[in-house]
Design a protein that fits this description.
This protein is an alpha/beta fold and about 375 residues long. It has ten helices and 16 strands. Bound molecules: zinc ion.
C-alpha cells in the first residue's frame, strides 16, 4: 500500500510499504482527515533519534474503522473515531506507577509515526482499540476531533502542569497551535491575566479570541523585561513554554515568579547539548521555581474528555484550521506548509476524497 514516509533524514515522500496486520485487540483504520504537525517536521528535518527505514509519518488523524480484532468490545466496522496522537500501552507496568508517557522507555507513549508506523497511509493499525480510539460525541465535527487528538491535549497539558490558580498571571511563550490551546486552557483553569507572546497576525487574533488579555511581541524588546514590566517586576505566576529555541527555556525561568512560580514546558528542543538554567534568576539554585517538562497526555479517555470540551462549547479548536486540502495525496504539500509557515497559517488539515477544498470543508462540518 501507499504511505507517506521518512526516506532518510531530511527527505520525506511516498513509498510502497507492507499493509498493517490486525491483532486480537487491535483495529485497522483509514484516514478520514489528518494533519501534519511540527513534530512531523522535526522528525523529517530536525535530526532527532534514528528512525526505522521508510517510517510511515503522521500521528494526527480521524479515521474510519475497516477491521476490528476478535477481542475488541467497543468499536465496530465503519465507525469514525478520533485517533489519539499519544497512545500509551496500558499493559506497560510503569503505568501502574503513574508513568503514563514514558512507561517502558522514553517516549513509549508517543509511538505513532515515531517508533511504529504512523497514520499517513492508506491504512494503519492501532494495537489496542478499546483503550486507544476515542468516540466522537454528537455535535463534534471531524475538524474539532482532529484538533483534539494532539493540539488541544498538548496545549491543555501545558496549562495543567502550570499549576494555575484563580487570579494568576500566566505567560504563554509561542502562540502556534499548541500555544493557542494553552491560552484557552489557562483561561479555563482560572488565569486572570494571560500574556501571550508572539507576532504573526493570525495567531495574535486567535490568542485574543481564546483568552489572552495582552499580546507581547519579541520584536518590541527583550521578552523577559516586557513580562517583568507588566507585572511590577514580580514576574508571571506561571509560564507555559509552547515554542521557540533553547533560549525560551532560560527566558521562562527568568520571568517566572520567585518562591511559587511554575514553568510548564511542552516545547520541543531539537539537537543535543543542554538547556541553560540561569543562576541569577534561578536564585543560585534556591529560587523556589518549579519546572515541569511534559509530553502531552493521551489515550482514549483523555481525548474523549478533550472532545467533551468541544461538545459543550468550551473550546473552538476548529478555529485553528486555516488551510484545508482535499485528498490524502496532498499530505506532502501540507507538511511543507507546516514547515514553511506562511503568514496566514496556523494549522492545515487534509481530508479524504477528491473534490474542491470547499466541498471537503462542508463535508467535514456535516459529519
Ligand atoms: Zn502533532
Amino acid at each position: 500500500m501507499r504511505a507517506f514516509v521518512l526516506k532518510e533524514p531530511g527527505v520525506a515522500g511516498w513509498a510502497d510499504v507492507p499493509e498493517p496486520e490486525l491483532t486480537p485487540y487491535g483495529a485497522i483504520l483509514e484516514p478520514v482527515a489528518a494533519a501534519p504537525c511540527s513534530s512531523d517536521v522535526h522528525t523529517v528535518f530536525g535530526g532527532g533519534s534514528r528512525k526505522a527505514p521508510n517510517l510511515v509519518l503522521g500521528h494526527e488523524c480521524v479515521g474510519r474503522i475497516l477491521e476490528v480484532g476478535s477481542l475488541v468490545r467497543d468499536f465496530a466496522l465503519g465507525e469514525i473515531v478520533a485517533v489519539p496522537a499519544i497512545t500509551p500501552d496500558w499493559r506497560d507496568l510503569g503505568i501502574q506507577e503513574g508513568n503514563y508517557k514514558h512507561a517502558s522507555e522514553p517516549f513509549s507513549g508517543h509511538r505513532l509515526g515515531r517508533s511504529r508506523p504512523g497514520v499517513f497511509a492508506e491504512q494503519f493499525a492501532i494495537p489496542d482499540a478499546d483503550t486507544t480510539l476515542a468516540k466522537i460525541p454528537d455535535g463534534v465535527t471531524v475538524e474539532q476531533a482532529l484538533m483534539c487528538v494532539d493540539v488541544v491535549t498538548t496545549g491543555f497539558t501545558g496549562a495543567e502542569y502550570a499549576d494555575i490558580k484563580f487570579g494568576d498571571t500566566v505567560a504563554v511563550l509561542g502562540i502556534g497551535p499548541i500555544g493557542l490551546m494553552a491560552v484557552a486552557g489557562a483561561k479555563l483553569r482560572g488565569a486572570a491575566r494571560i500574556l501571550a507572546v508572539g507576532s504573526r497576525q493570525i495567531c495574535v487574533e486567535r490568542a485574543l479570541e481564546f483568552g489572552a488579555t495582552e499580546v507581547l511581541d519579541y520584536h518590541n524588546g527583550d521578552i523577559v523585561e516586557q513580562v517583568l514590566a507588566r507585572t511590577g517586576g514580580r514576574g508571571a505566576d506561571s509560564v507555559i513554554v509552547c515554542g521557540g529555541g533553547d533560549e525560551v527555556f532560560t527566558q521562562a525561568v527568568d520571568m517566572v515568579r520567585y518562591g511559587i512560580g511554575t514553568v510548564s514546558n511542552v516545547n520541543y528542543y531539537g539537537g543535543t547539548g543542554s538547556l541553560p538554567f540561569p543562576k541569577f534568576s534561578g536564585g543560585r539554585g534556591m529560587a523556589g521555581k518549579t519546572v515541569h517538562t511534559e509530553l502531552a497526555a493521551g489515550g482514549r479517555v483523555r481525548i474523549e474528555r478533550m472532545m467533551a470540551m468541544a461538545a459543550a462549547g468550551r473550546i473552538a479548536p476548529e478555529r485553528l484550521i486555516t488551510h484545508r486540502l482535499s485528498g490524502m495525496d496532498r499530505i506532502e504539500e501540507a507538511l511543507y506548509l507546516m514547515k514553511d509557515k506562511p503568514q496566514d497559517l496556523i494549522k492545515v488539515m487534509v481530508s479524504e476524497k477528491r473534490g474542491t477544498d470547499e466541498d471537503s470543508q462542508r463535508r467535514s462540518t456535516l459529519l
